[in-house]
Amino acid sequence: MGSTLRKALFITYRFPPQGGGGVQRTLKHVKYLRGFGWEPVVQTALNPYWPVWDETLLGEIPPGVRVYRTRAFEFERFEHRLSNFLGEKHAARQTTKSGPRPVAADPDSNRRGGGVLHGVRTAVHRRLLIPDPQIAWLPGAVLHGLRIARRERPLVIYTSSPPNSVQLIGGLLAGIVGRPWVADFRDPWTDGPRRKLSYVGNRMRADIERAAESWVIRRADWVIVSAPPLRDRFLGKYDFLRPERIEVLTNGFDPGDFERIDCGEPLLEPGCFHLTGTGNIEAMFDARPLFRAIAGLVGEDSGLRADLRVNLIGARRGKYDADLAALGLTERVRYVDWVPHGRSLQYLRESHALLMCQLPHPGGGSEKLSGKCFEYLYMQKPILCLTVPGLTAELLSESGLGVSVDPSDEAGITAALRRLYAERAQAKPGNPEVVARFDRRRITERLAAIFDQVAGIPAAPGASG
Question: How many domains does one find in the chain?
């Protein structure tokens, strides 16, 4: 089948068996692109340094799709191993002198080893690894990409970031092989809140990255962003960028993911009111107002005291263990460590209401729509979203499924939880037309139309764009 289709070379650093939200967008395009006349060919990293792995996602890559994996020097893996090595050596010295004791107990250990290592690491990240540690992938990826392009002869090159160095690889490769290039930004680059922090006291890095971003926007034949505010920002920054050359393709949901949910043995106990959230919730905001609201409700409401269970699926670092213990919520607010994507969807399906958390500042939920937002909408369950006013809150309101509360508003969270519990027996289906807009297949169809346009392929009779 693939030999009869036009080829598009996808260059992406985040791809299965890596897991997490960053891989879903490109994976779903690869999964559905053949249905719209294009054969994806993927170039990704052979040895990426990434904390989340999900081997089950490999099964979503269509049979016969070629995936080329290019080896990279992963500085983050190197520094992690070096840190462990120095720590082990230092611990061994302490053990021979006075018996085992933690390295942190030595007041000079940070200066002798960890402090020096941390200083070197910070300097390397701030001054050399620009725009990100994956810049070390660039030389090998460009050379390997040239061999892939000669063998596969793609008509279009597509890149997806972050990491933003992938855009530089795509631009260089497209220029060398003379193919049109589509640059997809899942997140902002120089305007990202965390990125801006790295520019403080580091004007050189800021200048380099802003110049690199401008080069990418100018060089790409088509720019894709994941939300309307990102498009508006690019148009405001770059007067050379024509509005018809930049398009919003949101993230979305894949109906196929929900068809494969294992509904065998239940994951959550029956007879309880389950509020479940997935993702890296600990890293989003100060969750203590949420926990205080839960503690207050179970203290005053006998029904919630008997029924309410809060399930947090994803990374846990123990940041709130002491707070949960002090509030008496250790058994009620339950962390489930990272699980494969399909299993996380099963947790959501078995729950009565869904908890979503967004970064409470510009660049977070006010300007971005995360992938889990669309999966939540597809579930057709009530959603409590802790975020600031903006894009996510507006979409949830339009869908008829969600209520948004500022994550610092303890009283607002309390009222929203009380209302969700009171209305637990009432079916409240969302707006199906709003939800249907975010089907991954429909979004991939639009990506294929963009490929047709940049490749100069006439639209089929009656096709819509």
Answer: 2
